[in-house]
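Re-run with default settings, no changes from the original entry. Doing this only to confirm the output is reproducible before filing.
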Amino acid sequence: MFKIKKYRKELSDPVQLVESVEQAARQARENIRWLVAGVAAAVLVGAAVGGFLWMRQQDDYAAANLFYEATQHASEPSQAGAPPAPRRPEDMQKAIETFRKILADFPNSSVAPQAAYLLGNVLSERKDWDGAIKAYQDFLARYGANRPLVPLVYQRMAYAQLAQGKLDEAEKTFNAIVQMPSAPNKDHALYELGKINELLNRPEGALASYQQIVKDHPSSPFATEASVRIKTLDARKAVAPAAHSPSPTPPPPQK
């Protein structure tokens, strides 16, 4: 059998030919419109990202200038070999105001965590313990992911609590440092916990803290003092039973 070969029908009608050309033109215009829209969207996104980065850079620059100004007020230059001169109250107040301005206007700047930490320190130096504790708590709420500064913030907050006589709160704060795996001031926190336990008449707790320093931080500057405290507490333990032992019964009077 022979197969009949079918030929494609050519567009010979002028009307159909015109319609085909117009359809192709419409499709081309539609493609161009989508292409232009895509390019425009990409340009807008790029401009937005670039604008955001530029604004972020400007904020960092402004915050850094304020931070430098605040630290100049917070630190008093001293002559070579002389102890640091006391800061003037007006300088400390200016430093506090400038640190707060950084946190209010540029909370996401690169210097904001340091500003929050130093704000608490300056308030502590003014003995504004409530203000200092609040500043440290605000730091932990805002910048709790800042691993280098968090242990130092806890330590300064614990000292503010000690200054208020809040031994139980200070103990919890120092314990928070001890629980941090990479805290660089863990030995310091353990030593302060030992002192708190002694103040609260808990010699066993004090011994545990001092012994942990000697065991886990033998090269720490607190290890020597911890060893002295261990010997002192052990000596007290040895004396205590003798002090509480019953006195010998006197012999009966001779007749």
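The mean pLDDT is 83. The chain has two domains: 25-73+89-166, 185-239.
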